[in-house]
Each structure stands twice: as C-alpha cells, then as structure tokens.
Design brief:
Chain lengths: 119, 171
C-alpha cells in the first residue's frame, strides 16, 4: 500500500543525511537520485516513468536540464522543481529549499562546508 | 519573447497587484517557470516548448512532483491560471484508480467484498482502459466517493450530470 508522500519525503531526507558525504556536485546529484529512486521504488507503489509529463504521485529527482546559476555564488548550482529549489555545491554539499524559503534539508560536502560557505 | 513571457504579460494586465516572476531556463531543453501569486495564493506554471504548460498550485510536499495539470495552448493555460487566482482554489493532480484506492487505505479485497465480486475483478477494473461510466461510478462509490465529471473549456469549467449518461439499470 502506498505510503503518504510526506512520509516518503521524510524518509528520503533521512537516508540522504545518513549517507556518506561526497566530494563533487555530480556525485551529490547522483547520490540524491539513487536514494530518492530507491525510496520511491520501495514505498510509493508508482512506476518510475520520468518522461510522462504529468503528476503521477511519485517523487522524482531534479531534472538535470533544470539547472540555474546562483547570483554571487559561482560554485553553487540551483535545480528548480515545482515547489522547491535544490542547491548543489561543487564540494558535494546540498540544500533543499521550499518556495517559502524554509530549508527542508542541508548537508555539507566532503570538506565539511555547507552550500553557502562556498562563496 | 517566448510563450511563457507572453503569458506573464497577459497576467500582469489582468492582475496588476499580482507578483509574477519568471525563472528562465539556462539550457535549451530546460523548463521555464512562472511563479504567480495573488493575495497569498500561489500558482506555478512550468513551460517547455515541446510539451506546453504545466499548471500547479504547489504544496510543501510537492518536492519532485510533475505538473498537476497540463495545457497545450497559452490561451488554455491563461484561462486556468486566471480561474485559480480569482477563485483561490487548487489544481487537481490526476490519479489512477489504484492510487485513489491506496490513498483511501483500501485493499482490492476490501473493495471486492463491498461489491460482492472477487478480488481479480477489481484488479481488472483498475487496469481497464475503456471503462463503462456505471462501472466507474460503482467503483468510486465502493471507495466511499461520489463520481463527478467535469468538462474544462478555455473560459470555464462545467459539471456534466452523470445520471443523465447512465441507463435505467445504472450502466
């Protein structure tokens, strides 16, 4: 039976925070995608069909072509999705921020620095 | 100026007090986004040249969600966004019958028991691609819901009377 989306999201954040820190933006996005896909495969009951462009109840990783630069932070990229932005630093740090500015997740990179400590 | 920028201009004329912000794509295949907010009510429009307009009213749980509703033309998207901002209502993500049943925390066996059919028949109903209206109404009713049919036009949405479409024996 499908686990409610909020519970799956919390489980995804819990696993992502518990995973080892990584050292690059590409590794951070790969780790995020792998963990999210695993959570959704286990708990959502919804097939993984990323190319079907309409809400199907599954949580998908940010699309890599939805990347945006971040003003005054050349070492950070932003991946836009419906209700959130996912910020990724070149040191493997991550931060997920909701539209209202609340931080849902913040994880330092391999060097211990957070996204906004990169400059 | 692309279709989303045109949409923003039309909305700015219609709602001078709305906050309208474009989040443009940096890659050729990426999405453009328009965040519209009026009186604290937010509507997000995602636009891709090859797919059209995705319209959603996001919630805090919408991380990684796809668009709730999809419109092929700028006119249709404009009318829907105007409707959402004026009525302060929410978009409705389409769900499969299985997802609706799961969201009600019901098993196929429980539905089968309520309808006095076997569980395999419920499974087949959920996977059927061309279902009779009466069967759909019965299934929704067994989940505790009531079937409504809506027809969405560019300028308004109307409800279709379900009973009028069913024969005397409910099919």
């Amino acid at each position: 039976m499908e686990v409610p989306k909020r519970e799956r999201l919390d489980e995804f954040f819990r696993r992502l925070l518990a995973a080892p820190a990584v050292g690059s933006a590409d590794e951070a996005m790969q780790q995020l995608s792998n963990i999210l896909d695993a959570v959704e495969d286990e708990l959502s009951g919804v097939p993984n069909v990323p190319d079907n462009w309409r809400e199907d109840g599954r949580i998908y990783p940010p699309k890599l072509d939805n990347v945006h630069p971040v003003a005054r932070h050349p070492n950070v990229k932003r991946f836009r999705s419906l209700g959130h932005s996912t910020f990724v630093g070149i040191n493997g740090s991550l931060e997920v921020v909701a539209r209202d500015g609340s931080v849902e997740l913040s994880k330092p990179g391999l060097d211990g620095r957070s996204v906004w400590e990169l400059g | 100026m692309n279709d989303l920028e045109h949409l923003k201009e039309r909305l700015a004329v219609r709602f001078p007090d709305a906050t309208l912000t474009i989040d443009k794509a940096e890659t050729a295949t990426g999405s453009w986004w328009l965040d519209a907010e009026l009186l604290g009510h937010a509507v997000v429009i995602e636009w891709r040249a090859d797919r059209g307009f995705g319209v959603s009213t996001p919630t805090p749980d919408d991380y990684g969600s796809k668009p709730h509703e999809v419109y092929e033309t700028a006119d249709a998207a404009y009318c829907r966004v105007v409707d959402l901002l004026l009525s302060q209502t929410w978009t409705v993500p389409g769900l499969t019958l299985q997802q609706i049943r799961d969201s009600r925390h019901l098993s196929q066996a429980e539905i089968a028991s309520r309808l006095r059919i076997n569980q395999g028949a419920v499974s087949r109903m959920e996977r059927r691609s061309d279902m009779r209206l009466g069967t759909l109404r019965t299934l929704i009713s067994a989940m505790g819901g009531e079937l409504q049919l809506l027809a969405r036009f560019p300028d308004r949405t109307v409800e279709i009377q379900v009973d009028q479409l069913l024969s005397d024996d409910g099919h």
